[in-house]
Every structure is written in structure tokens, then in C-alpha cells.
Amino acid sequence: MTNEATNTVRGAVRDLRGSLIRSFDAEISDIDGIIKLTLGEPDFPTPQRVVQAGIESIQAGRTHYAPNAGTMDFREAVVAYLKRRRGLEYSVDNIVATVGGSEALSSSLGSLLSPETQSIIPIPAFGAYKTQTLLAGGSLDLIDTTDTGFKLTPQQLEEAIERAQTAGKRPVLIINYPNNPTGVALTTEEIKVLAEVVKRHNIMVVSDEVYSEIYYGGSRADSIARYVPDNTVLIDSASKSFAMTGWRVGYIAAPAQYANEFVKVHQSNVATGATFTMDAAQEGYEHGDEDIEAMVAEYSARRNFMYEALTDMGFTVAYPDGAFYLFIQMPDWFEGSSLDFCTKLAYEAKVALIPGAAFGNLQSRWVRASYAASMESLRECAQRLKVWLKEQN
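Above: the chain sequence. Below: its structure as C-alpha cells.
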């Protein structure tokens, strides 16, 4: 970039760093024979019923602009889905269809955040929360949850709200449970006590629930939107639930007065999502429950295998309640960074994991493995790790 361009682009953009997840994945992808447990992408094909709905939509000529907030049928399907699967009460006025969960985040956070706000983000966390805050000129309060079982506590939230208010900032809480990268989820009781703090201080919560369906607790993961709906912006996507990462379709569910504002930013950024992708996702939201259950059953088996294999090797692993990640503590004997550890593992064991530094703490002693891979690949990874560990001693 020329000096002129550098000086023209605003500082918040110049200072951003690209995703360490993506850059590390690209760096090690050319290693011969490597098995990658890096990206959070389901290895399942998009369910056939969803694919067929998309094909039929295209063939029917539904390839032109959709309404800015999304087709009415899609929004109605989301409303019914949220009630059926999660017990949440919304109307179509609360729903904005977006270009994936990422754009749902950028449109909602781009509307809520400003130099007058302070984002309260429990870490480890998905990097976009920090990025979107910095782009909006907001300040950050990153709450390390390593010592609290990777769960935000009411005391931590109270203290963070006080810090924001002391600094003259409006606090905005950003949470993600089940969590990327740990897989940890909150119990209903834990959500309720956080909701009480939110209600008492009347702050906004952006709840990223893209992994809510991938939950191993016997039912769906609970949502803070159930307890403080007027204070909650719920972010979700078809990407994980229906293995639709490339279709780019998600949504925001929020109080109508907020949804009406978010759609302005959404309209400015992307105008609207693609009609046929909404039609395809609509089929999933209406009739895809069994597809979700089949994927979750397979993820559960993979989780159990990898968790047992890694703990048997002596690794400390955060026990995942959902999502498809394992957060693994580096061995005490390793003295380098999480990036150093993952680089060594990639070249020597030919197993690729993601450095914990990608999730908010550059000094992290943890790494992330995605088990959104075949059981065959996971078994081979476990064997390679076992051999590699023996070679280190």
C-alpha cells in the first residue's frame, strides 16, 4: 500500500490484523500429508432437502432482489423455528435476514457500538467481536475466563459494567455460548444470574448463538433472550446448523425498535441477501430437525473419542458442552507460544490446530482443535499426536 493510500485509510482499519485462524491455516496447508483440525466448518454436505429447495428456487426464477429485511416466508420460518426449537417468542418484525452470521454481527454491532461504548467480551472468544468493536471506535474490556471454567460470572460482569461506567462508556455485553473455541455452554441457572445483572443495569447483550443447535446437554442450549428479551440481540446462522457455510445466510432476532435500525446498516452494506439462499435455509428451518439431530449425534461421538484420546495422553482439555471444538492446554514442558506449539505440531506431527492466541489472549497456553472432520481423520490425528508426544520425552 502506498503512503498516500495508507494515510487516506482510517486508522481503525490500518491497525487491524487479519484473522490468525485463517492465516495459520493457509500457512500450513501446503505441508505434505497434514491433517487439518483448524477451521470451524462442518464436514457434512448440506442436507439434500435444503439443496433441492435452493435448486427449485433458482429454477423458479427467484434470483432477483429480496426485500431488505429478507423474504416474509424466511422470516416466518425463523420465527416458527425459534419457538419450536428454543421456546423463544418473536414476530417477523423482530427478524432481519443477513448474509451469514458474520454480517449479522457487523450490522448489529455496527449499529450498537461507537466511541461512547465499551464492549465487554469474555475471552477466549471469536475474533470478530474485537474487530467490530475497534472498527466502530469503541473500547474493549476483555474478561479472561480461564480460571472460571471459561464461563463469565455475575461478579466479573458487575465489575466490567462498573469499569465502563466509571470511564463514561455505555457497556455492551457480547457473549457466545456454546463457545468458540472452548465448546463450553452456560447452564440455565448460570444464564439467569447473568440476565439479572443485565436487567438491573439495563445494558444490551449481543448473544452469538450460531452453535446453539450443536449441544450435547439433552436439549437445546438455553438463551439469555428467554430472560431479558428486551435487552438481547440474538445472532444466528444456518452455516453450522445445516452445514451451509458457503450459502451465506443468517439472521438477527431483536426487539423491533432495534431490528428497524439494524436493517438500515444491513441495507447500506449488502442491500439484501440472496433470495434462493433464503428459500433453501427456509426449508431447513421448517423441515430440517432430523438433519440437525443426525449431525449432532455424529459430533457427539467424535467429541467423546477425541476428548478421551487427548486426556488419556495427559492433555488437559476443557470439557465441551456443545459446538465442535476442543480447547487443549499446552504441556508444561513446552516453553514457546501457542503459535510456536501449533507450528511445531504441524511440521513434526502433521496435525494442524489453531493457536489460542487467535482468541483474545496473545499469551494463551491453549490451542483449539476442530472435530468437524471424519472419524477416520480424527483417529489418525490421535495416533500421530500419541507418537509425537513420545518423541518429545
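DSSP finds 15 helices and 13 strands in the chain.
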